[in-house]
Amino acid sequence: MRRRIGRLKTATAAAVFALAGGLPAPLPQAAAANPAAPTATAADGDLCQGQCADILPPGQNGNATLTEILAHRVLGTRPAHSSDQLGRYDSLVGGHGGLTDARLNDFFNDASFGVPAAQVESVTRPRPDVTITRDKKTGVPHIKGTTRYGTEFGAGFAAGQDRLWMMDLFRHIGRGELTSFAGGALANQGLEQQFWPQAPYTEADYEAQIERIRATEGARGEQAMADAQAYVDGINSYREKSKNGRYFPGEYVLTGHIDSITNVGEIQPFKLTDLISIASVVGGQFGGGGGGEVQAALSLLAAQQKYGLVEGTKVWESFRQREDPEAVLTVHDGTSFPYANKPANPRGTALPDAGSVVPEQLVHDRTGSAGTGAKSPVRAPERLKPAQGMYDDGVIAPGSLGGKRGMSNALLVSGKSTASGRPIAVFGPQTGYFAPQLMMLQELQGPGISARGVSFAGVGMYVQMGRGQDYAWSATSAAQDITDTYTVQLCQDEVHYLYRGVCTPMEKLEKRNAWKPTVADSTAPGSYRMQVWRTKYGIVTHRATVGGKPVAYTSLRTTYRHEADSIIGFQMLNDPSFVTDAASFQQAVHNIDYAFNWFYADSRTAAYYNSGMNPVRADGVDPALPVLAERQYEWQNHDPAANTAAYTPFAQHPRSIGQDYYISWNNRQAKGYATAAFGFGAVHRGDLLEDRVAKLVADGGVTRASLTRAMAEAAVTDLRGEQLLPELLKVLRSQPVTDPQQNAVIAQLESWRAAGSQRRESAPGSHSYTHADAVRIMDAWWPLLIEAEFGPGLGDDLYRALTGNLAVDESPAASHGATGAHSGSAFQYGWWGFADKDLRQVLGLPVQGPLAKTYCGGGDLAACRDVLLATLKQAAARPATEVYPADGSCKAGEQWCSDAIIHRALGGITHPAISWQNRPTYQQVAEFPSHR
Fold first, then answer.
1. Is pLDDT above 50 for 335?
2. Which listed site, 94, 133, 220, 524, has its alpha carbon 20 to 30 Å from 701?
3. What is the pLDDT of residues 841-873, one digit of tens each?
């Protein structure tokens, strides 16, 4: 069926069809999939009573026909429900101040089960045992099946309706075949070169993962694979119908897969193994943790070279901050969960010889435009020219799926501090901004399934974050250490290594891609071969020498060869007979292998659990650094055939039920739970939530609106202004400022701090910040300040090495950050924690877990003040045109635009920029009045 395509006005439609040169029209809805007359959908045990809300911008509809793409390019029109949640999402920036519970649905969707009769837009029956009901306001699919197969078939069919092209893109990204599928743009080359080496598999490897779930997970494993097959069958049903009916996504024409006139061509059928491929992208992007031990080793070596072995190690550890006592924690009641800590007497650590590390070559045999991105536009038919070159910069903008994406946030308050006496949750995943989104909203009701929420498109057999009949749940990326680097000793030649004393050949995995220009992507013909070497200790990432002997460094993560095992946990979350309380929720998410923090709320309690396949390491192994690939240092009970090992049990994972409140913004989980990366110190963006929620709890009477306001206020606050500026001002004001110009600059910063350090419009739609100049000064000052504060003391080599471990800045305008420009998420990665401790050390204030040395001005307050004044003077002199350079969306000097969120188009439909807010992409507000 071709559903919910916006009906253009007659004149508009005529213009588009003239433009399209008489392209074959899509079949009417009645002929496509036998839609039924609109009727109301039952509430299906919904106990939220209208107190559950959610939102996912820009809109539900992620497919667009060729006609609709051309209409959008020429006339600016958009398909129905492709952008109708964007305005409400954006308006919370200016509207949260006076927010009340009664007004929440001005900014969110009603997330009740079912669709009232008066709100039914369409009902589709792709099979007799399932209906897909869509509401008028958002077009979200409410899928209800009388059989399990029918329910899952309907989920797949709805996914095809909403995300067919996007799912096709992501299965090719996971398989390392994006350039052959969508074109050879440099960004496409980079994307497949980023993801394929993380999860390189043969088809047999994919199939083995499916069979393992069936064989080892009992009845639930069999059911999960049956559900997955039904889901794939539903996708393929829509794929066939849309192709035959000529209402398939227009990107297939523009990338050369289907002829727009004859309809010759094919959309390749989806397979179960495609779900594994998509899962590897999603899990690797949002659920990974650890790794990076080679870069950590390089910065440790630089510290030891500067300060000597003992002192250098001490300095490095003070920057590494594995267990900083001042770090904000999710479990804040003092409960300890020791994991991945530094051993008292490390053994097996294998640091490289200085200067010997070389990254493993991935790309070979380049031809044509490979590595160059040279263009050679095709002669496009006149009717297609409006869309020509739309993928010249890639199907996904560079940086959109960066390597570091620990994102999402959660705020939960227990009933003893709420006005109603019941827990309240405001939470959601922060997955970037794409058009369409990587996730899609859906409601699933069928035998053993009852849930509404989001799923990543292509693996949407179950709701992955959302709500059940009387509970809601969500997740944030946890990033604990589930990936280690092994140092394998070479033997015979560079492709043989010692495994448990036996010289063993490495396994070569290859992917060959070739492309040619299309209407969408003008990149000239080209090709290359990607190659990785696989060992029983993981994939080779670097070559080096250790003690003069050649070695290979390999990366091994616990979830490799287990990309879809987490399906069991998601199945449980959707099963109302399994999740009945906080304890059963924790058991469900314990079956999710990726590293996530999971949160839960029902009418009685709130709860938390940290999931992940945490390996049990050998005694004395330091997980922060490379370790020798010898049996005595392997994960306990490691079997490389299926990459299984011993994992820490349920009781050793950070968890809690009934704590007074919970916050998470990808901060540390609990006492004793060591971090897997740099940047978890005394200042973290989690502090923006912690301070606000703690105050709400202390005051009592928390409501859904007040907790949402706390989130929304944090979302527009500059972390540096709130947490660092007070200390900076103390240093600056430690003596009178005699220069009138500098005094005026400092006064601007003081005024901004007093007003809340926000990056917020002076009025909705003004596109100008209230304290625009103070924001500009801070943006210009921060990188200058950090280098001048730390560079002289650390020296060039160590400073560069440490900035390789942790970037200095991730302000909204810092396009060099982990998520690129216009991505919303900000202030996770940066040197704020280092600067905070250093400035307090200079000021003589108490510091727990201090840096090993004091850097600003060599520890002298007057000298530190001189550093701050000098860099502040430089920053104040920098014009906005330099601080905010032009990009493809903004002119130089456009501060608001430089910060603004821009949905990165994965297809032919684009969306207007919205105000910056550091907030979950999909977000729920939930308060359940009762329980089953």
1. yes
2. 94
3. 999 999 999 999 999 999 999 999 999 999 999
d(CA 88, CA 94): 11
Task: Give the per-residue pLDDT at 330.
Answer: 98
Amino acid occupying residue 642:
A
Sign of CA dihedral 551, 553, 557, 560: negative
Closest alpha carbon to 249 in 1, 63, 387, 74: 63
CA distance readout (Å), 560 to 76, 198, 624, 626:
44, 9, 19, 18
Strand partners, 124: 132
pLDDT of res. 816: 46
Select from 741, 770, 743 the least CA-distant residue to 754.
Answer: 770
Strand partners for 505: 496
* Listed residue (637, 630, 906, 880) closest to 775, CA to CA: 880
Tokens of 731: 């240093």
Amino acid at 904: R
Residues 6+ apart with CB under 8 A from 754: none
pTM score above 0.90? yes
142 vs 134: CA distance, rounded Å? 6
Phi and psi of 221, rounded to 5°?
Answer: -65, -45
Per-residue HEC secondary structure of 102-130 comes to HHHHHCCEECCCCCCHHHEEEEEEEECCE
- The CB-based long-range contact list for 702-706 (8 Å cut-off, 24+ gap) reads 702/413, 702/417, 702/418, 702/419, 702/424, 703/101, 703/418, 703/419, 703/420, 703/424, 704/51, 704/101, 704/104, 704/424, 704/426, 704/925, 704/926, 704/927, 705/99, 705/100, 705/101, 705/103, 705/104
Average pLDDT (303-332) is: 98
Partners of 758 in the β-ladder: 717
Residue 5 clears pLDDT 50, i.e. is over it: no
Contact 405, 285 (CB under 8 A): yes
320 close to 303: Cβ distance less than 8 angstroms: no
Give dist(CA 398, CA 819) in Å, integer.
9
Do the Cβ atoms of 35 and 3 come closer than 8 Å?
yes
Q: How far apart are CA 800 and CA 299, in angstroms?
A: 8
Q: Is the pLDDT of residue 39 over 50?
A: no
d(C-alpha 725, C-alpha 748), whole Å: 12
DSSP output for 294-356: HHHHHHHHHHHHHH-HHHHHHHHHHHH-TT-TTS-BSS-SS-EEEESPPPSS--SB-PPPTT-
State the CB neighbour count (10 A cutoff) for residue 788: 19
Residues whose CB is less than 8 angstroms from the CB of residue 716 and which lie 6 or more positions away in sequence, other chains included: 93, 758, 759, 760, 916, 917, 918
Quick one: three-class SS letters along 429-488? CCCCCEECCCEEEEEEEECCEEEEEEEECCCCCCCCEEECCCEEEEEEECCCCCEEEEEE
| Cα(404)–Cα(516) distance, integer angstroms | 31
Burial 422-434 (b: 16+ CB within 10 A, else e): bbbbbbbbbbbbb
Cβ atoms of 227 and 205 closer than 8 Å:
no
Local structure of residue 269 (DSSP, 8 states): P
Torsion sign (Cα): 481, 472, 233, 906 = negative
Torsion angles phi and psi, residue 509, rounded to 5: -115, 135
Asked whether the beta carbons of 291 and 626 are under 8 A apart, the reply is no
Residue 493 CB-density burial (10 A; 0-12 exposed, 13-18 middle, 19+ buried): exposed
